[in-house]
Amino acid sequence: MLVSGHWLKKNIKRKNVKVLDASWYLPNVDRDPKKEYKSKRIPKSVFFDIDDICDTSSNLPHMLPSASIFENKVSDLGIKSDDILVVYCREGVLSSPRVWWMFKYFGHKKVFILNGGFKAWAFANGKIISGLEKITQTKYKVGRLKKKINVTFEELSYIKKQNNNYSILDARPARRFLKLDPEPRKNIGKGNIEESKNLEASIFELNGFFITKSKIRNILKKVIFKNNKVICTCGSGISACSIAFSLSFIGNLNWSVYDGSWAEWYLRTKS
Predict the structure, then answer these.
(1) Residue 3 β-bridge partners
(2) Ranges of each domain in the chain
(3) Among 172, 170, 168, 154, CA closest to 229
(4) pTM here?
(5) Strand runs labelled E in the chain
(6) Smallest Cα–Cα separation from 227: which of 164, 147, 148, 169?
(7) Which residues belong to the active site?
(8) CB 249: neighbour CB atoms within 10 A?
């Protein structure tokens, strides 16, 4: 699930190893991930635009696209269905889990996160280049969809009404969860989903690297009842994937990401 900078440096020349820059920032952060990619990047890397490879017909940010749109967009990146994918982002492991989750949802078998992101590559003394990667278009085909790792608004509403065997974990910073800070999107108000618990995504990393499995287990056992299904949420479905990845990392597969997250919940439940 995780690879090191040294592993990538050793294996990057393999034809079936593809590298994806999944950098992304909140809308209130004055940074351009695509511009940063062009300026400094890992060799062979292509830019995976989270805000473009999505359902552009939705009024919600970066919702999962259809299988056909995903196939077309990923084909344009020169990726094949049997490639080994290594996903990284500029700032540690901020947004790479989102792209890991997307490929998992669409049935891609070999997708890994570069632990430490771009920093890990630099620590391994990997070559840093600039400019765009020359891409040969492929005919990417999705695998068997893993629909159980995504939950819709309707499904979550049903779960909340029908049983108590679930835990909703919200990965947003505590001040946003507690309604002390505004949401970064102007049309989304403050708040949280009823019965949810706050578990900041940043708790799973240290200096941009994922913490150990034992530390992750100790954190999660305090907020999850045994055998409960975990619903991972956040502001718009990005940092929620850090909780999902951490659960998978320790062998807990009883989870789903609420793709719409607080943005959708707010818009559909506000009075």
Answers:
(1) 114
(2) 2-123, 147-269
(3) 168
(4) 0.97
(5) 2-3, 17-21, 45-47, 84-88, 111-114, 150-151, 166-170, 196-198, 205-206, 209-210, 229-233, 255-258
(6) 164
(7) 234
(8) 19
Domain 2-123: CATH superfamily, name plus number: Rhodanese-like domain (3.40.250.10)
CATH 3.40.250.10, domain 147-269, yes or no: yes
Q: How far is CA 231 from the centre of its chain?
A: 14
Cα distances from 191 to residues 172, 183, 184, in angstroms, run 11, 9, 13
For 239-257, write each residue's pLDDT tens digit. Answer: 999 999 999 999 999 999 9
Using one digit for the tens of pLDDT, what is the confidence trace for 123-173? 999 999 999 999 999 999 999 999 999 999 999 999 998 877 899 999 999
Rg (CA), the chain: 18
Edge-to-edge strands, sheet with 111-114 = 2-3, 111-114, 84-88, 17-21, 45-47
**What span, in angstroms and rounded, lies between the C-alpha atoms of 150 and 39?**
34
Answer whether 2-123 and 147-269 agree in fold: yes
Nearest alpha carbon to residue 93 among 172, 212, 201: 201
Does the structure show a pLDDT above 70 at 216? yes
